[in-house]
Hints:
Elements: E1 2-6, E2 13-14, E3 22-24, E4 27-28, E5 55-59, H1 62-72, E6 78-82, H2 92-96, H3 98-106, E7 111-117, H4 126-132, E8 135-140, H5 146-152, H6 159-171, E9 175-180, H7 190-197, E10 204-207, H8 216-226, H9 231-238, H10 241-258, E11 262-266
Helix pairs in contact: 1-3, 7-10
The site of iron/sulfur cluster has 10 residues, from loops.
Amino acid sequence: MLIREIQAKSVLTKSNIPGADFCINPYVGCTHACKYCYARFMTKYTGHDEPWGEFVDVKVNAAEALRRQLERRRKKGGSVLIGTVTDAYQPLERELGLTRAVLEALSGEGFDVSILTKSDLVVRDVETLRELGNCAVEMTITSLDDDVRAAFEPGAPSPARRLAALRVLHDNGVRTSVSVGPVLPGFTDLREVFEAVKNLVGGIRGESLNVRAVDWPRFEAALRRDFPERAAAFRKAVASAAYWDEVAATFEDLCAAYDVPSQGFCLH
Ligand code: SF4
């Protein structure tokens, strides 16, 4: 694993993601190393030869750069998403605290802050999140099976830890939601996920597997190694538009059945 320190000129970046004016990524790269990671395209902007998941560039001055940007802004506030092409709570954050420093810099600046993560480390900052007020955490859960996590999200915390984190955030009054993204055919049990999170979140969204984003050689290697008996059915489902339409319909049915507000199912 290559860890490199870099200086960022700016960290508050205009976003074209619907509902977000800005995004912040305190790191470039992510040691959660998900085989389906949609952010792998970032590799080409980094100059790294290492594959995605095997390097992290650490924006050591992230909070300082953010404070400078905020001082220069005439207008306060807006909506900001943290962790759009990295996980801001990947393991390095425990020691470095860049995300926490970024949250502290945002305090009192009138932002609606949303954090996307797969990590229970976010719980460390629960007090800061409460103080921010307009803050929400979206936890990604693709399966409750830790063997599936180990195969396809090898560096990320277990599903049980993610659920426990949602519980703590929810109990502390932080807005929470879940992303079932992406649904992995034959591995994601939507009903099981709804059952587990129904009392912990204010919304849920889903997403099909983005076949253009997947690192297929690595994904296939994990599939053949850990789940060879499921590989053929997986490939067939991924390629079937009818399959995904059915998943999207099931997702909406489950939102209604479990009374969890739907934040939509994105079909790539
Ligand atoms: S946690 Fe997110 S950013 Fe990190 S590797 Fe997984 S999908 Fe990519």
